[in-house]
Design goal:
Elements (H helix, E strand, L loop, with lengths): L20 H11 L6 H5 L5 E4 L14 E12 L10 E6 L5 E6 L4 H7 L5 E7 L1 E3 L2 E5 L3 E3 L1 H6 L3 E4 L8 H13 L10 H6 L5 H9 L12 H28 L9 H9 L6 H15 L5 E6 L5 H14 L3 E5 L3 H18 L3 E4 L5 H13 L4 E4 L13 E7 L6 H8 L6 E6 L5 H8 L3 E5 L9 E7 L3 H13 L3 E5 L7 H19 L3 E4 L5 H13 L4 E4 L12 E6 L7 H8 L9 E7 L5 H12 L3 H12 L1 H5 L1 H4 L9 H4 L3 H14 L6 H12 L13
Parallel strand pairs: 4-7, 10-15, 10-16, 11-13, 11-14, 12-13, 14-15, 17-22, 18-20, 18-21, 19-20, 21-22
Antiparallel strand pairs: 1-9, 2-3, 2-5, 3-4, 5-8, 6-7
The structure holds adenosine-5'-diphosphate (ADP) and magnesium ion.
């Protein structure tokens, strides 16, 4: 039950003075909620302020500046009768002898006579300008008398708006909302709050919506920080509660002697790295526990996540159960199958693939065998989610490149079995802060080291007008038997133009180098794509011109050169992924970033970072700095729940503390019964995390 004291904050906005059904619709758009509530408005924080504190005499007024001046009303000049569209002017002055004309278009004369009576003093605030040789102010923002002036906020918040909604509307509604703010118990650790000198929740909202100084609304200031921390804590608490619930709910441990796993590993032409071994141990351990595993295997490109996942699958399969391995693209699914098949065979694991390409009788046969338990490991794309896909006994779902899939899809796969353990592989090294935010309900295994024998990739930036030299170098590489990717950029957000650029480059290189050149792009038929990839993998072609279809995960260890055309058009993470296609074998590799000069500041910074480092974690942090968080995870497009108040660039640093805090709270008080626990329930409601409260075990 929601605490009663919160009721006014969860009333619809029409409970506020001045908000009717018409404005409510506009607020729905502004606040992105069908029926916005008072609390949603309160979290709509100012984007800036108007500073009316400048109070010059008229002879000191600067044009274009927002000022508040005290003036004597001298005379009214209504629009002449024969020109009703002409403005209504009011002449005013002060003791410096300078005049200020107040200009109104289509205003009602009786209203203006009341507002600005001749002979009286009025305080007028707005932007002054010069017109016809004299100072004027068109439609002053504020006109008040002595009493009104005493109550006039000289620093006014400015809010993001939507069409049809005026700043005045929002300010008035906000005043109403603040008036409804009840006294709430403190849910944060009191010692921490006072040490950090943070205001209480209500005071923080009041400080932000009624700033005294422009600085008051800065995100790094105490008021905003307080609310951001509240939001982070609410999120972390909810994640922890969900996790505790998931763990309690499921109850099947999967363990085996590890014979099958040992066979898989023995079939590898190399030994696992230390961190691969550690990850395998962690996963095997998780699988054996009678709680559901939710683990993120995070490792930079080329760090060798696939075999770790396979070792995990072997463990579940030896226990007589099944595993699924889901990749984001057809190419990748087939590549995984290719990697996995010989190892699986060596261990006696029965593997099959299911993508959009398996249709009709072939598909039916796979599904039948799957249901009977005659397939141990099913590799595939999102086709694995389809409704008619039924496992005999799915124990483990491995999801590669998680951020391409929504949370929704991740859940869909776990519903294909009884308390399915989930292992998510991600090659985009996500900064720790973001892992906590979005994957906070998961444990993390990290592959920090690269397999032995890898050499750093020699990364160079070259302006496009030196294309000839690059082509010549590719020619030399071909004659030396090397293999190269040539990546053409996304010209627009359209596959077609994208393709045209790749096709043109392919035609040109083909003319120069003949059959050694091949092409792969996203619009090709699946089988053709496979064939092109296979030819390149086998060395039948040596230059693979590609659109970004090769971005994720493609593994041809013999490829040692990657040319990226118009590198300035790619994001940092994407460039890092692309570069990760080389440097996978023992040979020395080169990455040539071709750019069109002149480079903008951000593009320049991106390319410089790439030259400087191959550390995916560092690159991800830099990317975050250059772009902001939503973009990095692609969440802006996929609509993953973001933050209302917290801004990762300012408040991300508090995430770890919020997570620790949440864990501590729940260890001491798992069902939020203590005084602080009760207070925290308020917090969860305020930030819309109350679903988590329902998961608290009674008693
Ligand atoms: P990613 O983590 O990017 O998915 P992959 O699993 O595709 O990486 O592995 C990249 C390459 O490294 C593959 O060719 C794989 O066979 C190889 N590899 C994986 N682990 C090791 C290891 N311990 N030693 C040597 N090579 C390895
Ligand atoms: Mg991979």
């Amino acid at each position: 039950m929601r605490p009663l004291v919160l009721t006014p904050l969860f009333a619809s906005l029409t409970s506020l003075p001045g908000v009717g059904p018409k404005l409510e619709k506009l607020y729905a758009r502004l606040l992105d909620r069908e029926t916005p509530r008072v609390v949603d408005l309160l979290f709509h924080l100012p984007a800036g302020v108007i500073d009316r504190r400048a109070r010059p005499k008229l002879n000191e007024v600067k044009v274009g500046q927002v000022v508040t001046v005290a003036v004597q009303v001298e005379e009214h000049y209504p629009a002449p009768r024969h020109r009703p569209r002409a403005p209504y002017r009011i002449l005013t002055s002060d003791d410096t002898g300078v005049t200020l004309t107040l200009t109104y278009f289509s205003a009602r004369p009786d209203y203006l006579e009341k507002l600005l009576p001749v002979g009286e003093t009025r305080y007028v605030s707005g932007t002054a300008e010069f017109y016809d040789g004299s100072l004027q102010m068109v439609h002053p923002d504020r006109v008040v008398d002595e009493k009104g002036f005493a109550a006039l906020p000289l620093v006014e918040p400015v809010y993001p708006l939507t069409e049809g909604l005026a700043l005045g509307n929002v300010r008035r509604a906000m005043d109403g909302a603040l008036a409804k703010l009840p006294a709430l118990p403190e849910w944060q650790d009191e010692a921490w709050v006072s040490r950090e000198r943070l205001p209480g929740f209500g005071d923080a909202l009041r400080a932000l919506h009624r700033p005294h100084e422009p600085h008051d609304i800065a995100p790094e200031n105490p008021a905003w920080t307080r609310l951001a921390y509240d939001e982070l804590l609410a999120g972390q608490l909810a994640l922890a509660l969900v996790r505790a619930h998931m763990r309690r709910q499921s109850g099947r441990g999967t363990s085996s002697e590890g014979k099958m796993r040992a066979k898989v590993l023995k079939a590898l032409p190399y030994a696992l790295t230390h961190s691969q071994q550690k990850a395998v141990d962690e996963i095997v351990n998780d699988l054996a526990l009678p709680q559901r595993m939710l683990r993120l295997l995070q490792g930079d490109v080329g760090s060798g996540k696939t075999v770790v996942a396979l070792a995990a699958a072997a463990t579940a399969i030896e226990a007589g159960r099944q595993a699924a391995f889901m990749a984001p693209t057809e190419i990748l699914a087939r590549q995984h199958l290719k990697t996995i098949a010989p190892l699986a065979e060596a261990a006696g694991i029965r593997v099959a693939i299911l993508t959009g390409r398996e249709r009709g009788p072939a598909r039916k046969e796979i599904l039948d065998r799957l249901t009977l338990g005659d397939i141990d490991l099913l590799v595939g794309t999102h086709a694995l989610f389809q409704e008619d896909v039924a496992f005999h006994d799915l124990a483990l779902a491995v999801v590669d490149e998680q951020h391409r899939f929504g949370v929704h899809q991740r859940l869909a796969l776990t519903q294909k079995g009884e308390s399915v353990d989930v292992l998510v592989l991600t090659a985009t090294p996500i900064p720790r802060t973001l892992v906590l935010t979005y994957f906070g309900d998961m444990d993390i295994s990290e592959l920090r080291e690269k397999p032995a024998g890898r050499q750093p990739v020699d990364t160079r930036t070259i302006p496009l007008d030196r294309l000839d030299e690059v082509e010549a170098a590719i020619g030399r590489a071909i004659s030396e038997g090397k293999r190269a990717y040539w990546v053409c950029p996304l010209v627009e957000e359209s596959e077609k133009t994208d393709l045209a650029a790749a096709q043109a480059r392919y035609d040109e290189l083909r003319k120069k180098f003949g059959k050694a050149v091949d092409l792969v792009h996203g619009q090709m038929k699946g089988a053709d794509k496979d064939a092109a990839m296979a030819r390149f993998a086998a060395g039948q072609s040596q230059v693979l011109v590609a659109t970004t279809v090769i971005e994720v995960g493609v593994d041809v260890p013999e490829a040692t050169i990657i040319v990226i055309e118009h590198a300035e058009r790619f994001g940092l993470a994407q460039l890092h992924q692309l570069r990760g296609r080389v440097g996978r074998g023992a040979g020395a590799s080169t990455c040539l970033l071709l750019y069109k000069a002149p480079l903008g500041e951000t593009a320049k910074a991106r390319l410089a970072i790439l030259r400087e480092t191959e550390d995916g974690f560092r690159i991800a942090e830099e990317d975050l700095r250059l772009r902001g968080e939503g973009d990095l995870l692609g969440t802006r497009q996929s609509g993953m729940p973001g933050f209302r108040v917290a801004r990762p660039e300012f408040h991300g640093k508090y995430l770890g503390a919020a997570r620790d805090d949440a864990a501590l709270v729940l260890t001491r008080d798992p069902s939020l019964q203590s005084e602080r626990g009760q207070a925290l329930r308020h917090l969860l409601y305020l930030f819309g995390k109350d679903e988590a409260i329902k998961l608290i075990r009674a008693g």
